[in-house]
Design goal:
Blueprint (H helix, E strand, L loop, with lengths): L13 H25 L3 H7 L7 H7 L2 H14 L2 H6 L1 H11 L5 H6 L9 H16 L4 H6 L1 H20 L9 H21 L9 H9 L6 E4 L9 H5 L5 E2 L4 E2 L9 H5 L5 E4 L27 H22 L5 H31 L21 H7 L5 H5 L5 E3 L12 E3 L12 H5 L10 H6 L3 E5 L10 H4 L5 E6 L6 E6 L9 H5 L8 E5 L5
Antiparallel strand pairs: 1-4, 2-3, 5-6, 7-10, 8-9
Helix pairs in contact: 1-6, 1-10, 6-10, 6-11, 10-11, 11-16
Length: about 525
């Protein structure tokens, strides 16, 4: 009688429980962070914005030393669980990595392989990001912070898609920010589908910092070589490519603690433990032979052959040292920056051309106007250094007066929110942007404090003013009145601003009907850092 073979059914173990718990936590955090950028519900935002305040880089920019110490302790004990459960960009990579591997046959075709750690590149790139931030340029921090990068994807791509599905009118806050978000999304999708968590272990600055703390965590993954049958299932399931079955080692600095390897192992050879496994058969350990008197160096032809071998090895090493190596990861990171630069430069040229055309129209624009930063900033320098350009304040602004900047603050500070009074104005009693800022680039304001916070000062171009008086009733501070200019029959009414009362909310500039050049504009307060 022939034996009937039944398909293998994995038992429900502690490892599977840990894996599914980690997935549940990751999806929950991903949904919460996404909802903060997509939903405009104030109650939901104020209750759930804590999810953005536990992200590591915003905590660092906010100066939250105690919270950072907690994350450091968690990483030293459990490894890089932030990357696998809290970081929304990490969850997005897992989703894209899973899509081409939904079926068993697809997973067999797209197996993960062990790769060597690109330590030189990732730590050199981390040094570059930190160095540019220290000297005052936040471009690399803005582009490569995982939370901020996902925030732009959510606010510039997911939110408009949700509006289209809901039948709402969709307005893109900034086409430049949309283009950068789209390039980021395509790059993340391609890299994750190709090699899983390669971004986390190459260009992500947060991942590089955590890798320094997770080299020797208290809890780590250990392979029981007495049980392991070298089936490579764990290696083929590792998105980080950190499992080397040939040596039975796991690189903890790259491991993101996803527990996929435990679930994939049918022999229970991998465990998440605090100890290191010792072979039950020490005779099987690899040892280095000890030299004996009878193993003295040979002479004659053997010695000559050894000398030639040493010379050849030295020559090969010299060639390797002088050869120029092209790192695929470095090429990818450089391509992301280069892809965004032409679009930003083109936008800057278009803005300059548009300004030049207006000078030849019926009215001349005011010269030297500075951009207006959001309310709640301590100073413009502090705002530009702390803000990561995540776009959370832009997505939650009820009046939609905020948009990501292009060149208003300089190309080294692109994507930092700026007031666009051509599109809307800042609501007098709204403090939503200060409530949700995770980095404290915008300090939280009360409604009374917002009423007196100076964003800038309105300036009137009398030559363009048509005397309609629309700006007078719209000013919440009653800082504008109409005065007569000229004498006799040639006199006309012109708006005049009381600078003691004006806070620069932009309501006057928004309602001004003068065309093509506004007769009243807001000049940013302290625009030079």
């Amino acid at each position: 009688m022939s034996k009937i073979y039944k398909p293998y059914k994995r038992p429900f173990t502690v490892g599977r429980l840990l894996r599914w718990t980690r997935i549940a936590v990751a999806l929950t955090m991903f949904a919460i962070v996404t909802s903060l950028f997509v939903s405009m519900a104030a109650a939901l935002t104020l209750r759930l914005h804590w999810a953005t305040q536990i992200q590591i880089l915003p905590l660092a920019l906010a100066g939250a030393g105690a919270a950072l110490a907690i994350w450091a302790a968690v990483t030293l004990i459990f490894g890089r669980i932030y990357c696998s459960s809290v970081c929304p960009m990490g969850t997005l990579q897992d989703i894209f990595a899973r899509l081409p591997r939904l079926t068993k046959s697809a997973r067999r075709r797209h197996k993960y392989r062990h790769t060597q750690a690109a330590n030189k590149f990732r730590y050199a790139f981390l040094t570059l990001v930190a160095g540019t931030a220290v000297v005052g340029s936040s471009l690399l921090v803005t582009l490569f912070d995982p939370y901020s990068a996902y925030g732009r994807i959510a606010s510039e791509i997911w939110a408009p898609l949700a509006g289209i599905v809901g039948g709402q009118e969709v307005l893109v806050a900034s086409w430049n920010a949309f283009a950068i978000a789209m390039v980021t999304l395509v790059a993340v999708a391609a890299c994750a589908a190709w090699k899983g968590r390669i971004i986390c272990n190459t260009i992500c600055p947060v991942g590089s910092i955590l890798s320094l703390l997770s080299r020797w965590p208290l809890f780590h993954f250990d392979i029981n070589t007495d049980v392991c049958v070298n089936c490579h299932r764990c290696e083929h399931s590792c998105k980080a490519g950190c499992i080397d079955v040939s040596t039975h080692t796991i690189d903890s600095s790259r491991c993101v603690v996803c527990f996929d390897c435990i679930d994939a192992c049918h022999d229970k050879a991998i465990s998440y433990t605090t100890s290191r496994h010792r072979l039950s058969m020490p005779m099987m350990q690899r040892i280095t032979p000890t030299p004996t008197p009878c193993s003295a160096p040979e002479k004659g032809a053997s010695a000559l052959k050894a000398g030639k071998t040493d010379t050849a090895d030295k020559a090969v090493k010299a060639i390797d040292d002088t050869a120029v190596k092209i790192d695929r990861r470095q090429f990818l990171a450089t391509g992301l920056i280069l892809a965004a630069t032409p679009m930003l430069e083109a936008a800057r040229r278009r803005s300059r051309l548009g300004l030049g055309r207006r000078k030849h129209d019926t009215g001349a624009p005011l010269e030297g106007l500075e951009p207006v930063a959001p309310p709640g900033r301590r100073s413009l320098r502090d705002y530009l250094q702390r803000c990561t350009g995540c776009g959370l304040c832009v997505a939650n602004c009820p009046s939609k007066v905020l948009r990501p900047s292009t060149s208003e603050f300089g190309l080294s500070h692109i994507l930092k929110p700026v007031m666009d009074y051509q599109a809307a104005y800042c609501s007098y009693s709204c403090t939503r942007c200060t409530d949700v800022c995770p980095t404290e680039a915008l300090q939280q304001l009360t409604v009374e404090e917002k009423h007196t916070f100076i964003l800038g000062k309105a300036i009137v171009n009398a030559n363009n003013c048509i005397g309609c008086g629309h700006c007078v009733p719209r000013c919440p501070r009653e800082a504008i009145r109409m005065v007569a200019r000229g004498s006799g029959e040639g006199s006309w009414q012109v708006a005049q601003v009381d600078y003691e009362l004006c806070i620069g909310c932009g309501a006057c500039q928004f309602v001004c009907p003068a065309h093509p050049v506004k007769a009243i504009c807001v000049n940013g307060a302290g625009a030079h850092p």
